[in-house]
């Protein structure tokens, strides 16, 4: 049935064409909301936090690394203080730009500079679509979103599990998911730093699936991971274990404080950013203490909460400001910068569109390099939506189109076309127009530009319905990328062995 519907859609025109897959460079100068002396004040506040208040590192394994790096560990405590020169020394060792590799070298991307990398949504416990409604995630749903992310050219990387497959045992879920990332896709993938064992398994799986050894793995990262501080001012044990293993093998770690203003950080944007800045700098310094030169990034996730309900608010003026200011701070410290495309809408409606577009343009204005949750995020991150994925892919393509160089020459100015048409005519049949019939304008994938009467006769489809149909049409074009049989056997053998051992429950 699905293939028949796909043929019908293709015969009726199919989905409007995507922009070609490409690495994206942001040509716009970043917005500078704060003056240098204001950034100095935030730096100084972060240093004061690290010197006087400190952070709790909830793992005894971190303590010898921190002491050797020059941090001050309170005796008999997990509280760690950092002098500003210690922070400057170690953060200065982080690379400013690096390549992150996929299984297909044509899908490699760069973190840093002016490059923008867009990821599929990650870590949603639920998913939704118009056919089956809102539901807890399953492994079938997980694989469906991986296939969609693979065929969407707007998506560069997988930034985590698009939806959590809660039908799989928690102790071995990561094995099935990492294997599926490798077998179903070719783009760079993500591993969760939820303890040492998950990271070690992910490292082994990516080596087997990519057919590489330890030395090749260290030449350029094949895995990204997010480290969220447990704001305020704590870094928990499982995250630290993941950092220790990732840094030792020169894999990419994005240090992202979870600083929602009014909840886990002060109820002002600048106060929340000062705390975010302190936590991020401490995490990056620690990462470099583990192994100098390990690729990492400065993560910003500061937004506000609704003070009546406590619910996170996204796509707000506060989020825009924090995203832009965080970008200024990351550039000041010469670090790649991560932000997100987020919204708090509960359905694929106008709120979802305008909050996401506001978030995306904040990422552009802030010079973000890695845009997490760029496609699919709904309900403040509780849902991965099929239709929202398509809507966001369209928004990303529109931003990409805005970034293309504007050509101003005699041909583009169209003077010959004006001479041909003259006063009072139209340009539909002009040679200038016909020569550009297929390429004159960017055609969004899900917009409907019919008049009201023809739209009504078609059943009055809204944006969500268009997005749903386009997603199914794209999924029908998916072909699983080839994987060497020896690599596949090695993946399967490893996964089955680790499941027999109990996964993360193994000693």
Mind explaining what this structure looks like?
- By secondary structure, the protein is of the alpha/beta class.
- It has two domains: 2-16 and 443-476, no CATH class; 24-29 and 91-402, Trimethylamine methyltransferase-like (TIM Barrel, Alpha-Beta Barrel).
- The strands form five sheets. Strands 1, 7, 10, 11, 12, 14, 16, 19 and 20 form a nine-stranded mixed β-sheet that branches.
- The chain starts with a helix and ends in a 6-residue tail after the last helix.
- The model is unreliable at 1-14 (pLDDT under 50).
Structural class: alpha/beta
Task: Count the E strands.
Answer: 22
Q: How many H/I helical runs?
A: 19
> What radius of gyration results from the CA coordinates?
24 Å
Give me the CATH architecture of the largest domain, please: Alpha-Beta Barrel
Strand content: 15-25%
Percentage of residues assigned to helices: 40-55%
- The tally of domains stands at 2
CATH fold descriptor of the largest domain? TIM Barrel
Q: What is the mean pLDDT?
A: 94
Q: Supply the CATH superfamily name of the largest domain.
A: Trimethylamine methyltransferase-like
Globally, the shape reads: globular
Residue stretches low in confidence (pLDDT < 50, at least 5 long) are 1-14
Largest sheet: 9 strands, mixed
Mind telling me the CATH class of the largest domain?
Alpha Beta
CA distance, first residue to last residue: 47 Å
């Amino acid at each position: 049935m699905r293939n028949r519907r796909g043929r019908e859609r293709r015969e009726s025109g199919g989905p409007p064409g995507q922009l070609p897959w490409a690495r994206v460079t942001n040509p716009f100068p970043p917005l500078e909301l704060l003056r240098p002396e204001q950034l100095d004040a935030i730096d100084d506040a972060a240093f004061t936090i690290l010197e006087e208040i400190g952070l709790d590192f909830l793992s005894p394994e971190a303590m010898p690394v921190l002491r050797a790096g020059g941090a001050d560990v309170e005796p008999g405590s997990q509280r760690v203080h950092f002098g500003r020169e210690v922070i400057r020394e170690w953060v200065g060792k982080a690379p400013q730009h690096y390549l992150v590799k996929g299984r297909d070298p044509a899908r490699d991307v760069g973190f840093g500079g002016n490059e923008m990398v867009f990821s599929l949504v990650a870590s949603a416990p639920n998913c939704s679509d118009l056919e089956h409604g809102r539901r807890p995630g399953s492994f079938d749903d997980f694989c469906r979103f991986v296939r969609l992310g693979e065929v969407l050219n707007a998506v560069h990387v997988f930034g985590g599990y698009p939806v959590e497959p809660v039908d799989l045992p928690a102790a071995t879920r990561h094995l099935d998911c990492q294997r599926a990332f490798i077998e179903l896709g070719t783009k760079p993938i993500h591993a969760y730093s939820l303890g040492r064992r998950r990271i070690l398994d992910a490292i082994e799986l990516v080596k087997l699936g990519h057919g590489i050894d330890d030395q090749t793995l260290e030449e350029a990262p094949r895995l990204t991971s997010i480290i969220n501080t447990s704001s305020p001012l704590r870094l928990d044990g499982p995250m630290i274990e993941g950092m220790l293993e990732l840094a030792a093998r020169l894999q990419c770690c994005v240090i992202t404080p979870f600083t929602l203003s009014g909840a886990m950080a002060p109820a002002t944007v600048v106060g929340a950013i000062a705390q975010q800045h302190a936590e991020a700098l401490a995490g990056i310094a620690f990462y470099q203490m583990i192994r100098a030169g390990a690729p990492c990034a400065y993560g910003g996730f500061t937004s506000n909460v609704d003070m009546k309900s406590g619910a996170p608010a996204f796509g707000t003026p506060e989020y825009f400001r924090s995203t832009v200011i965080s970008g200024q701070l990351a550039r000041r410290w010469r670090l790649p910068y991560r932000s997100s495309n987020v919204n708090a809408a509960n359905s694929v409606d106008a709120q979802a569109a305008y909050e996401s577009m506001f978030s995306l343009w904040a990422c552009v204005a802030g010079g973000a390099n890695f845009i997490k949750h760029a496609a699919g995020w709904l309900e403040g991150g509780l849902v991965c939506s099929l239709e929202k994925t398509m809507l966001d892919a369209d928004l990303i393509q529109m931003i990409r189109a805005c970034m293309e160089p504007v050509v101003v020459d005699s041909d583009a100015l169209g003077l010959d076309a004006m001479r041909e048409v003259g006063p009072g005519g139209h340009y539909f049949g002009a040679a200038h127009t016909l020569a550009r019939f297929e390429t004159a304008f960017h055609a969004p994938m899900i917009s409907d530009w019919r008049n009201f009467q023809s739209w009504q006769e078609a059943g009055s489809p809204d944006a969500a319905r268009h997005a749903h149909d386009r997603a199914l049409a794209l999924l029908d074009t998916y072909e699983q990328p080839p994987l060497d049989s020896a690599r596949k056997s090695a993946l399967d053998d490893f996964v089955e062995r680790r499941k027999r051992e109990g996964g993360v429950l193994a000693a």
